[in-house]
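Sample intake sheet
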Amino acid sequence: MNPLYPLLALTIGLVVPLQAAINNQLKHVIGGSTVLAALVSFVVGGLTLALVALATGQKWQGLANLPRAEWWMLLGGVLGALFVFGTTLLAPKIGVAVMLSLIIAGQVVASLLFDRFGLLGMPLRDINSWRLLGAVLVVIGVVLVNFGDRFGPAGR
């Protein structure tokens, strides 16, 4: 595996809280609309991707095959919009750490299912005891992030 891939994944994880905070500030500037803040975020992201595609010489004619795509293959954009909207909405309401701990727990559970069953053409990967232990530790982490202040002397 290319050693830059894990670093890219870590970097993406590091910027998600930043994205939620930036979009929350944008929401306030544009009149308090979470939907419009997410829309602006997506438009800027779309323009950025278009510029990167131009700069890297992507073959735009491949988009001519888009009508052949199944309807569900376009849901990635819907899910991305839900993610941006949801993080913009939830970060100020429940806190960034709580929000992201729950998002990460959901991602780990769903990812294990995708790996185990090869959903949507993903490669099959075994779920061994170490991976299950990792998932359990993530869930424990979510509980501690969400309710840790209720345990021990600091929570009293």
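Comment: The two ends are 47 Å apart (CA to CA). Residues 4-155 form one domain.
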